[in-house]
């Protein structure tokens, strides 16, 4: 029982609520003089709500010479007690504690969407050794361990499904509301939940390398206190403390009414000013988290609001980064396009080359039927593959491979293949039994939401730029598809740095979006760096200010609009708090406000600032609400 009471009191929020309840009751008793007590009941509010404020002020002043709002509040409390305004002192302490609690609740609510990841870390795993299963701590799982996951269990580490079919709830990682079907060969992430079927998987990334742990590291680095504009507000708060003390002293000297001086101290506490920025930033971070972004730097959203250009890497950012069969052409009258596709897929079935794997995978995804294993297979590095199946000899590879085998490609076929090459595709040529059969064109698939995203960014007033290491033809084709006017091809990492630096030297702040190791320098150099958190490399994610967890760039316009709205909210908060403070001090100097009413007016301003900031938690522009798939965001 004692342990539970101690644990309850260690929860700061619960303790503050209890102190507020007791303090509020004591003020009611004091105001109505209930029970005619020999001691003013408002002392309870002073002790429970005021002492913590005075303690924090003294500690900050002595250890860091930190002159902030707590200093003025403490002076106002002490001065009220000295002149016998016990109820006023209790009310000041009570209302200040309400404002503090509201700030805590707002910040906690804003961070809740991020910090819940920490509590989703799997504790145990079911390891399979031979015919036996054993339950082990999740941190003991090693790469290549065979694990079994039952329905309802959380997937302990990242891995690849070896057997079994299921549906996985990936909401914690991707924000998808519906479970995703999984089958052998599909990847699964730690922290996601297996819903329906049991499956066996091979562990690929464990411990600190797992998806959930990477996200947790990003969470722990999110800090609103780093924002530059917070420092500005703090400097203002320090000057306001000096001005308030001077005004109180002069008022006392000229009017000889200490009550007016005390009221000035009460109303001029810069709490609303100090709350104006951190609450807005943390609410915006909470909103961004709900839409798939993890903000690693506190001032990242502030900087994003001032961005003029967004530079995109191509592969893995505007495209999925996985080649797909874009076209098939038979050049042999005896074979159909389907025949050429099938022979190529058979030849590439055992290939380790990404393009070969893509051909076989696309055939299987299209449901074209099972492919027979080739009777023989040979990999020819830098050329292609040679295979035999059902008595037929198949060559699949580049133009040089066929030329070395003495197989010629007609001018008409070469011209037709050239049209695909001009679009940035890769062409695989196929020969069957020594005769040129046709070719397959493979291309990186553009993300379904890319065109819409680019269009919305232009509407916001942000210019998109394509920076890619691909050839000119591929870059031109993608840029044309997405209506990107400016692009730069064949960029090495230093080239991307040079372009970004040139823009920023021209006072055009740049946001860079990328996923690869080669993008890391550009992500670091840019005014704001956003990394694709799913497909992106660890180095890219670490170099970025913001990580896009689910790789869905559709939400990017919302993030930019959110950053701009956040800055508008901060400016409104600062303007309102400063205006309220100066109006209140004039009323206090003239004697219109007394300490009790002054405390109410001042703290009402703090509450309004917090409420205004909390509106960012649910902010979403109308232009970003309708999704292409018909889903309407909440």
Automatic annotation (TrEMBL):
Keyword field: ATP-binding, Cadmium, Cell membrane, Copper, Copper transport, Ion transport, Membrane, Metal-binding, Nucleotide-binding, Translocase, Transmembrane, Transmembrane helix, Transport
Domain of life: Bacteria
A Pfam cross-reference name: Hydrolase
Protein's GO biological process: copper ion transport
UniProt-annotated location(s): Cell membrane
Annotated TM spans: 17-34, 41-65, 71-95, 236-255, 261-286, 572-593, 599-617
EC number: 7.2.2.21
Family: Belongs to the cation transport ATPase (P-type) (TC 3.A.3) family. Type IB subfamily.
NCBIfam families (UniProt xref): ATPase-IB1_Cu, ATPase-IB_hvy, ATPase_P-type
Name of this protein: Cd(2+)-exporting ATPase
Species annotation: Candidatus Gallacutalibacter pullicola
């Amino acid at each position: 029982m004692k342990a539970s009471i101690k644990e309850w009191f260690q929860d700061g929020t619960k303790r503050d609520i209890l102190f507020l309840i007791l303090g509020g009751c004591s003020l009611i008793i004091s105001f109505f003089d209930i029970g005619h007590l020999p001691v003013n009941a408002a002392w309870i509010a002073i002790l429970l709500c005021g002492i913590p404020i005075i303690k924090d002020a003294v500690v900050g002043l002595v250890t860091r010479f930190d002159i902030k709002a707590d200093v003025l509040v403490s002076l106002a409390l002490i001065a009220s007690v000295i002149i016998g305004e016990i109820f006023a002192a209790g009310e000041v302490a009570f209302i200040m504690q309400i404002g503090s609690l509201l700030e805590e609740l707002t910040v906690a609510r804003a961070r809740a969407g991020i910090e819940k990841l920490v509590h989703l870390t799997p504790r145990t795993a079911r390891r399979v050794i031979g015919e036996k299963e054993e339950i082990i701590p999740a941190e003991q799982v090693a790469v290549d361990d065979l694990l079994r996951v039952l329905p309802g269990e959380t997937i302990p580490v990242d891995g690849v499904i070896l057997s079994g079919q299921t549906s996985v709830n990936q909401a914690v990682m991707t924000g998808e509301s519906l479970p995703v079907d999984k089958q052998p060969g599909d990847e699964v992430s730690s922290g996601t939940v297996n819903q329906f079927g049991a499956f066996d998987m091979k562990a690929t990334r464990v411990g600190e390398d797992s998806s959930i742990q990477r996200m947790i590291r990003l969470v722990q680095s999110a800090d609103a206190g780093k924002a530059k504009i917070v420092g500005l507000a703090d400097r203002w708060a320090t000057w306001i403390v000096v001005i308030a003390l001077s005004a109180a002293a002069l008022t006392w000297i000229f009017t000889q009414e200490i009550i007016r001086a005390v009221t000035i101290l009460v109303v001029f506490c810069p709490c609303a000013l100090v709350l104006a920025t951190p609450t807005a930033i943390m609410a915006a971070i909470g909103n961004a988290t709900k839409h798939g972004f993890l903000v690693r730097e506190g001032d990242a959203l502030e900087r994003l609001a001032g961005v003029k250009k967004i530079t995109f890497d191509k592969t893995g950012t505007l495209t999925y980064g996985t080649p797909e069969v874009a076209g098939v052409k038979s050049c042999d009258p005896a074979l159909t396009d389907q025949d050429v596709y099938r022979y190529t897929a058979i030849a590439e079935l055992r290939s380790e080359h990404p393009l070969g794997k893509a051909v076989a995978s696309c055939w299987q995804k299209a449901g074209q039927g099972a492919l027979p294993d080739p009777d023989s297979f040979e990999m020819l590095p830098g050329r292609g593959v040679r295979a035999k199946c059902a008595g037929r000899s198949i060559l699949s590879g580049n133009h040089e491979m066929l030329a070395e085998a003495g197989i010629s490609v007609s001018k008409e076929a070469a011209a037709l293949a050239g049209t695909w090459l001009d679009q940035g595709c890769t062409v695989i040529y196929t020969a069957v039994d020594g005769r040129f059969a046709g070719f397959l064109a493979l291309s990186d698939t553009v993300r379904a939401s890319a065109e819409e995203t680019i269009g919305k960014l232009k509407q916001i007033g942000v210019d998109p730029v394509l920076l890619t290491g691909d050839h000119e033809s591929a870059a031109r084709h993608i840029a044309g598809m997405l209506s990107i006017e400016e692009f730069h091809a064949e960029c090495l990492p230093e080239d991307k740095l040079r372009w970004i630096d040139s823009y920023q030297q021209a006072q055009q702040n740049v946001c860079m979006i990328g996923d690869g190791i080669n993008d890391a320098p550009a992500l670091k150099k840019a005014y704001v760096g956003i990394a694709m958190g799913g497909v992106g490399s660890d180095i890219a994610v670490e170099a970025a200010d913001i990580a896009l967890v689910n790789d869905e760039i559709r939400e990017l316009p919302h993030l930019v609009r959110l950053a701009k709205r956040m800055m508008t909210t901060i400016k409104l908060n600062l303007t309102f708090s400063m205006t309220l403070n100066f109006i209140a001090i004039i009323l206090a100097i003239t004697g219109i406000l007394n300490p009790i009413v002054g405390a109410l007016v001042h703290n009402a301003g703090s509450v309004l600032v917090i409420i205004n900031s909390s509106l960012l938690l649910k902010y979403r522009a109308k232009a970003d609400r309708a999704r292409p798939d018909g889903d309407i965001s909440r």
